[in-house]
Amino acid sequence: MMSWRKSLARRLRGLRSRPEVEPSVSPTPPAPEPTRYFYLGPDVALTRLTDGHHLFVDPQDESVGVHLIAHGYWEAWIHDVVRALARKGDQVVEVGANVGVYTVALAKAVGEHGHVVSLEANPRLAALVRRSVEFNGYSNRVTLLDKAATDITGPLKFRVSRANAGGGHTSVDSPIAAPGMTEIDVEAVRIDDLGLGPINLLRMDAEGSEPLILHGAIETLANPDIIVCMEWDILQMSARVPVGEFAAWLAGMGFRFWRIETDRSLTPLPLEAMGTLGGCEVVMTRRDLSAYDLHIRPPE
Predict the structure, then answer these.
(1) What's the pLDDT tens digit per position in 101-122?
(2) Least CB-packed of 13, 148, 167, 223 within 10 Å?
(3) Where do the domains of the chain lie?
């Protein structure tokens, strides 16, 4: 039997170890966010995107690059629609890769049996894309061409900017010109001359050169199942072609038009709206888009 002295000692020890005030239960602190930005020098950095990919970027690029560094994404609503339009096994062509945001996303979407051909005329950006493709493990499903797609072949004058890398474009007397533009010589190619076969998806962001690119892709556009996703900027495009005539040319081949909305839905557009449409991204196809995981709004 326990003696009264031992019993008292045990009770006293229990009182000494008991806190005077019951501590409040504090929530578990959130796990720290993994490092997302790695500075590698004045000309290159590595940033982690919100979709899990890593991209090499230019820390001096004050347009796309700085947004990727700060936020980890670019044009999220367009990005999601483009991803939804690409399927496993698809053959995709991308014109205007910039630093490869869409390149790696499309490479993941098409899978190991699909392929992405990406064209980027700015040699500084093309070098970054090449490193990103390899870093993310997509070298076997991406072909990168350091060329400008247009309606001619041969040497071409191309304007680039370090501070606004996304503003590179073929040289024209355009009403839009970013400060600090310099002119370089690049090689121009026609998509029809690349010998790629049927293309499922053609994505373009070429600062107004999209009409010229499509005029160099007439055979490619003959594929009844092709989907085209492109920036639609009538101010930039009008420096190269009459936009109304360009839209009519596309409609004459059977293409219909949808605008990508910021809520990731698609709004059908009539042909007569295309000549005055504000800057946006459009989807053009002859296909029934109801088969895709997209919300189609009723016509305006």
Answers:
(1) 999 999 999 999 999 999 999 9
(2) 13
(3) 74-296
User: What pLDDT digit, counting tens, does each position of 173-193 carry?
Assistant: 554 455 678 889 999 999 999
Q: Token pair for residue 270?
A: 């009539």
Contact 258, 228 (CB under 8 A): no
CATH of 74-296, one of 3.40.50.880, 3.40.50.720, 3.40.50.150, 1.20.58.100: 3.40.50.150
